[in-house]
């Protein structure tokens, strides 16, 4: 429960993704829209009795707690249970509604309306964007909300404009022979096998590649089906993003190919050094290769592929490497939990294929392993930052001993 000083600080900061001001004369539908949007986002706080300009007006009614609880249970589906309490600010009471991150997304407002003389139930979904809440109208955005609740994994959705011929059968055969030799690919049962491997599914009367199928084994021209498949690798001549770009490459093949291409880019700039300990020469690199491999693989298998228009970014500065993966952390995973070895796979199919290929840790120990490797090499610990748009993992260059 916040105190007056903390509430005043929120008011001074203004409205944002996590804070909304509302006078309590607002009608129920406008209020519940904000509650649903915040719960579909990452939770937040609604201050009742504060106007849009941050002026404390105070409460004008004494039934706000009952009112909030009723609309959250009767209008919102699935029901949400916020925390409500009141705080005195400069002699005036305001209501504080605290909302957690919803774990049963997507939440929606359920209303009955009359259309063409018949009563129908209408579901309306809202999401928070900056300091405003807006209706979810695109299928992709709704899919992302389902994905956030573990109700749907975008990677197994069909790619409707593609066919099985848009996957490279040679790559599939090579993968199976190398990593799953007990599985035999026969022409007469190819479609069923692809379905069992989660790289295809039956959709609208035909077998279609899944998003994972094309990401893993797509033939040439993959970008026309999946515009979110690329990796951008940048070498910056300096330590600031505005400094001159020494090298810039875009890799737009399968995620296995992109992984290898980005790794080759990394090799160019991972400088080698050594120290003499006693009579032995001990070799070091600016960054431990195994740590970069793990972080790159994690970015590929954990990025949010429902977000198009942006690629994974590998930025190599003079003093650090930043790996940027589109999409926030999935579900209830946090940076702190990652550092402790907790795991949650946004894309479990991709994770399994990468694990089969011995390209990633399966038990959620990837970050723990990377920090150990960095320490052994003389590098600082990983810096991990995340918001609703991306996760940025930073490796700092090995500290030079003088």
SSE layout and pairing:
Blueprint: H1 4-13, E1 19-22, H2 28-40, E2 44-48, H3 64-74, E3 76-77, E4 83-89, E5 92-99, E6 108-115, E7 118-129, E8 132-135, H4 139-148, H5 169-179, H6 190-196, E9 200-203, E10 206-209, H7 211-217, E11 231-236, E12 245-251, H8 255-269, E13 272-277, E14 280-285, H9 289-302, E15 312-316, E16 320-326, H10 335-339, H11 348-356, H12 366-377, E17 383-386, E18 390-396
Parallel strand pairs: 1-2, 11-15
Antiparallel strand pairs: 2-5, 3-6, 4-5, 6-7, 7-8, 9-10, 11-12, 13-14, 15-16, 16-18, 17-18
Helix pairs in contact: 8-9, 9-11, 9-12
Keywords:
alpha+beta; about 400 residues; flat; single chain
Structural write-up:
This protein is an alpha+beta fold. Helices cover 31% and strands 26% of the residues. It contains twelve helices and 18 strands. Strands 12-11-15-16-18-17 form a six-stranded mixed beta sheet, covered by helices on one side.
Strand order of the largest sheet: 12-11-15-16-18-17
Report the biggest beta sheet as strand number plus sense, adding barrel if it closes.
6 strands, mixed
Q: What is the ordering of alpha helices and beta strands?
A: HEHEHEEEEEEHHHEEHEEHEEHEEHHHEE
Distance between the termini: 51 Å
How many helix segments? 12
Give the class from helix and strand content and strand pairing: alpha+beta
- What is the mean predicted local confidence, pLDDT? 87
Helix content: 25-40%
Outline type: flat
- What is the alpha-carbon Rg in Å? 25 Å
């Amino acid at each position: 429960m916040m105190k007056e000083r903390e509430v005043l600080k929120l008011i001074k900061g203004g409205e944002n993704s996590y804070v909304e001001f509302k006078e309590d004369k607002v009608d129920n539908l406008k209020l519940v829209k904000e509650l649903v949007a915040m719960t579909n986002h990452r939770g937040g706080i609604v201050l009742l009795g504060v106007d849009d300009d941050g002026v404390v007006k105070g409460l004008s009614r004494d039934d706000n707690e009952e009112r909030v609880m009723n609309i959250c249970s009767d209008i919102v589906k699935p029901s949400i249970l916020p925390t409500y309490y009141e705080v005195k600010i400069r002699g005036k009471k305001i209501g504080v509604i605290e909302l957690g991150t919803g774990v049963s997304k997507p939440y929606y407002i359920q209303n009955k309306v009359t259309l063409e003389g018949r009563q129908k139930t209408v579901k309306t979904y809202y999401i928070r964007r900056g300091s405003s809440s807006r209706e979810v109208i695109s299928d992709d955005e709704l899919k992302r909300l389902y994905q956030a609740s573990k109700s749907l994994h975008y990677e197994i959705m069909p790619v409707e404009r593609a066919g099985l011929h848009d996957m490279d059968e040679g790559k599939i055969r090579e993968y199976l022979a190398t990593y799953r030799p007990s599985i035999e690919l026969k022409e007469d049962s190819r479609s069923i096998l692809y379905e069992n491997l989660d790289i295809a599914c039956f959709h609208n009367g035909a077998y279609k590649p899944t998003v994972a199928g094309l990401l893993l084994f797509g033939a040439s021209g993959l970008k026309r089906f999946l515009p979110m498949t690329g990796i951008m690798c940048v070498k910056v001549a300096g330590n600031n993003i505005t400094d001159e770009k020494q090298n810039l490459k875009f890799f737009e093949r399968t995620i296995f190919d992109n992984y290898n291409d980005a790794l080759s880019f990394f090799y160019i700039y991972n400088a080698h050094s050594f120290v003499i300990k006693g009579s032995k020469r001990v070799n070091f690199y600016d960054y431990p290769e195994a740590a970069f491999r793990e972080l790159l693989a994690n970015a590929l298998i954990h990025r949010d592929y429902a977000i198009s228009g942006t690629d994974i970014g590998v930025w190599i500065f003079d003093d650090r490497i930043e790996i940027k993966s589109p999409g926030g952390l999935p579900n209830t995973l946090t940076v702190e939990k990652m550092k402790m070895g907790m795991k949650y796979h946004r894309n479990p199919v991709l994770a399994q294929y990468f694990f089969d290929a011995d390209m990633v840790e399966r038990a959620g120990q990837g970050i723990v392993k990377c920090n150990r490797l960095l320490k052994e090499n003389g590098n600082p610990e990983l810096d991990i930052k995340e918001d609703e748009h991306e996760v940025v993992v930073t490796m700092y260059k090995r500290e030079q001993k003088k």
